[in-house]
Design brief:
alpha/beta, Spore Coat Polysaccharide Biosynthesis Protein SpsA, Chain A, two-stranded antiparallel sheet, 9 helices, globular
Length: 247
């Protein structure tokens, strides 16, 4: 059963322009993310899923340089883009994460895949990891079904189609490991303060060679609350509510 990591990526951000290619310790943020994701053992491929808009051309270039695949599809309909990418590369199980999350954990990607398959799920999530370090597992058939039932073209935030419609078999993998369990630690990058926090983490932990584990990030933040304070006032933006056909 072929699986792959599909990274949703665009360069259109207004709050932090070009954030996913913004240099982080001299390296584009998405390249750091790719280095981390390549440590996952189960997924057979990594695909950067971006748009056909010329602004996103640098993402295709990075994909080629980093030895991963690239799919270019609908600029706004993320569900459709993921579905078409899964079809093109014959991916039965999609592991999805977004490019504004440089610390997505590869260990839990493998754990999530196993949980997803063992439970016969159509959609699976992770509960307990810091915000911006988790991923999602979705079957290709479930993606296709979600595209059929949705009545919205802007699907940047799409998880509700699987969790809130009673039309999919899904559950959450619960994180028991206290070394990484901190669900309200914000490690996503959406605002300048978020990037400043990530920069501080790299300054403290990166040796310019190896990928430091999530447990080291959590440990650092527990020991240094001033790091957590950098973006603790930032609120996660709300997504567009889901819309179903005929509802």
């Amino acid at each position: 059963m072929k699986s792959a990591i599909l990274i949703t990526a665009r360069l259109k951000s207004s709050r932090l322009p070009m954030k996913v290619v913004k240099p982080l310790s001299g390296v584009p943020m998405i390249v750091h993310m790719l280095d981390r994701l390549k440590l996952a053992n189960i997924p057979e491929e990594i695909v950067i899923c971006t748009s056909t808009v010329a602004q996103d051309d640098p993402l295709e270039k990075i994909a080629k340089e980093q030895g991963v695949k690239c799919y270019r599809g609908d600029p706004d309909d993320v569900l459709l883009r993921l579905t078409k990418a899964a079809e093109k590369f014959n991916i039965e199980t999609v592991i999805n994460c977004t490019a504004d999350n440089p610390f997505v954990d590869p260990v839990y990607i493998d754990k999530l895949y196993k949980h997803h398959i063992q439970n016969g799920n159509e959609f699976s999530k992770i509960d307990g990891l810091p915000w911006g370090t988790f991923s999602y597992a979705i079957s290709q058939d479930a993606l296709k079904k979600a595209c059929l039932i949705k009545d919205e073209k802007d699907t940047e935030v799409w998880h509700g189609y699987f969790m809130d419609t009673d039309q999919f078999k899904w559950d959450a993998l619960k994180v028991q490991d206290e070394s990484v369990n901190w669900h309200n630690l914000r490690l996503t990058v959406d605002y300048p303060e978020d990037f400043s926090l990530v920069e501080r983490i790299f300054e403290e932990l990166w040796d310019h060679k190896t990928v430091f584990p999530l447990s080291d990030i959590v440990s650092l933040c527990r020991k240094h609350p001033e790091i957590v304070a950098i973006n603790e006032h930032v609120l996660q933006k709300a997504g567009i509510p889901i819309k179903l056909k005929g509802v």
